UniProtKB/TrEMBL annotation:
Subunit structure of this chain's protein: Homodimer.
Pfam families linked: GATase, GMP_synt_C
Domain GMPS ATP-PPase: 211-417
UniProt-recorded name of the protein: GMP synthase [glutamine-hydrolyzing]
SUPFAM superfamilies: Adenine nucleotide alpha hydrolases-like, Class I glutamine amidotransferase-like, GMP synthetase C-terminal dimerisation domain
PANTHER family: GMP SYNTHASE [GLUTAMINE-HYDROLYZING], GMP SYNTHASE-RELATED
UniProt cross-references to HAMAP family, sorted A to Z: GMP_synthase
Record's keyword annotation contains ATP-binding: yes
Role summary: Catalyzes the conversion of xanthine monophosphate (XMP) to GMP in the presence of glutamine and ATP through an adenyl-XMP intermediate.
Keyword Transmembrane: no
Length: 542
């Protein structure tokens, strides 16, 4: 019988709020807020067929979205969602979806846009509908982001909140636990947002706020053991980043020496990366890491390729080619030993943001980029052929993974290590990849990160790196005119890596970094600092 992959899924062990995604770029923040309350939440496309759900949520949230509910082709929920008889909260577009389903004339384009801060006046009705704003006072500050609006109250509903521009900023069904708000409680700009979501998830839905990393670790270890079985071997991609390190620690805890850790050197690693990762994982976690030198293979396949999506696809496919070769080697070496068996599984440290950013299957939002852990995999793996994927962290955010790392006793230097993408420096080069360009970017990055650490700023920054623009710029060194590359410095602060703000360095410090890079890295004529937040930019350059 096939292993029960669903048996220990979090929604089968924790009260879960289902968030149906209508394509909003802030849908993930609804999950973040709910999980911060100890309530587990999971994201699915708004088009999910309710009959295909294998579990029943305690409540459902309809997210915001960029479309207009009255336009042809706009996304809509399965009507069966209203037959589940669980509480529903619609946010912005989600609120309009509730009203539109009752009568399409309830929603129309507004006369004035309402973006940014708004004062929301709470209306007391003296019935069950007051529970959503319970304890929040008579007026709350909120963040609005809409043009469309409710122009009439849906039949069977009452008003529970209003703003100067939206007389139906909050609505609730007179009898059923169905609520809608026009503002965004998931955003930090709505200070009472967490309290409102607590009122909905805990008080109205009755969800127990018992989502704890400790419980997740034990459940996930049990799930891994059931999934892998008693004999199969697991091959793991370990880069030294916190995601793959925590994944490796979980796997080692679950199946011991049947887990085989591999680091593929694709020629685009940071300075001394492979040696340091091998030494660190061995010393702190007792993991014997095998390093495979594949620099020439990767660089030859990347030759002349400048399109970032093609780079990711090539790198993802080449990684799997090499891992499958390693699987054959490991099986042969394990013959006639207590750990003999087939390598059936491939471990990746995929996180929830990787999934959300890579694939459009979780709602109608457009793909931002192909993540090498998700969309960059060959079709044979996505279709379950060859090595099968095992991704124990797939539903978690970065801070949750770090919490697991600390619980597992992983050294703080590994837990707080800045993320490094699987494709490495290849996607930090704007243009085609050559060994010369990788070497230049690698040296500049080493100087940048070293100076950040020396200044005591490393732990204040979520991610920092130096990239390279293959466009050339004129420079003057002494009396010599040079035609050199442009180095792009990037440093951001973020809680969940779904949005990020630029880190504000002192200008004198940036000038010092620029001088050192220009003086010590041949081929560089100019250094710039990227001031773009996310959104609109991504954290990586490609």
């Amino acid at each position: 019988m096939a292993p029960n992959t669903e048996g220990e899924a979090p929604h089968n062990n924790f009260d879960t709020i289902l968030v149906l995604d209508f394509g909003s770029q802030t849908s993930h923040l609804i999950l973040r807020r709910l999980r911060s309350l100890g309530v587990f939440a999971e994201l699915l496309p708004c088009t999910t067929k309710i009959a295909e759900l294998t579990w029943k949520p305690k409540g459902i949230v309809f997210s915001g979205g960029p479309a207009s509910v009255y336009d042809e082709g706009s996304p809509h929920v399965d009507p069966a969602v209203f037959d589940l008889n669980v509480p529903i909260l619609g946010i912005c577009y989600g609120c309009q979806e509730i009203a539109w389903r009752i009568d399409s004339k309830n929603v129309a384009r507004g006369e004035a846009r309402e973006y940014g801060h708004a004062d929301v006046n709470v209306t007391k009705v003296n019935s069950h509908v007051d529970r959503l704003f319970a304890g929040l006072g008579d007026s709350v500050a909120a963040f609005m982001s809409h043009f469309d609006k409710l122009i009439s109250l849906p039949k069977g509903f009452v008003v529970i909140a209003a703003t100067k521009n939206s007389e139906f900023a909050g609505i609730a069904h007179e009898e059923k636990p169905i609520f809608g708000v026009q503002f965004h409680p998931e955003l930090e700009h709505t200070p009472c947002g967490t309290d409102l979501l607590r009122n909905f998830s805990v008080d109205i839905c009755g969800a127990k706020p018992n989502w704890k990393m400790g419980d997740f670790v034990q459940l996930e270890i049990a799930r891994i053991r059931e999934l892998v079985g008693d004999r199969a071997l697991v091959l793991g991609a370990c880069s030294g980043g916190v995601d793959s390190t925590v994944g490796a620690a979980l796997m080692r805890e679950a199946i011991g020496d049947r887990f085989k850790a591999i680091l593929i050197d694709n020629g685009c690693m940071r300075l001394n990366e492979c040696e340091e990762v091998k030494e660190t994982l061995g010393r702190h976690l007792g993991i014997n890491l095998t390093v495979v030198d594949a620099e020439d293979l990767f660089l030859s396949r990347l030759e002349g390729v400048s399109d970032p999506e093609k780079k990711r696809k090539i790198i993802g496919s080449t990684f799997i080619d090499l891992f499958e070769k390693e699987a054959i080697r490991i099986e042969k070496e394990a013959e006639n030993t207590p750990n003999s068996g087939k390598v059936e599984w491939f471990l990746q440290g995929t996180l929830y943001p990787d999934v959300i950013e890579s694939l459009s299957f979780r709602g109608p939002s457009a793909t931002i980029k192909t993540h090498h852990n998700v969309g960059g995999l060959p079709e044979r793996m996505m279709n379950g052929q060859g090595l099968r994927l095992i991704e124990p962290l797939r539903l978690l955010f970065k801070d949750e993974v770090r919490a697991i790392g600390r619980q597992l006793g992983i050294h703080e230097s590994l837990v707080n290590r800045h993320p490094f993408p699987g494709p490495g420096i290849a996607i930090r080069i704007l243009g085609d990849v050559t060994k010369e360009r990788v070497d230049i970017a690698r040296k500049a990055d080493h100087i940048f990160i070293s100076m950040i650490k020396e200044a005591g700023l490393y732990d204040e920054i979520s991610q920092a790196f130096a990239g390279l623009d293959t466009s050339r710029s004129v420079g003057v060194f002494g009396d010599q005119r040079v035609w050199g590359y442009i180095i792009i410095l990037r440093a951001v602060r973020t809680k969940d890596f779904m949005s990020a703000e630029v880190f504000n360095f002192d200008n004198a410090f940036l000038q010092e970094i620029s001088r050192k890079i220009c003086n010590e890295v041949d081929g560089v004529s100019r250094v710039v600092y990227d001031l773009t937040s996310k959104p609109p930019g991504t954290i990586e350059l490609e």
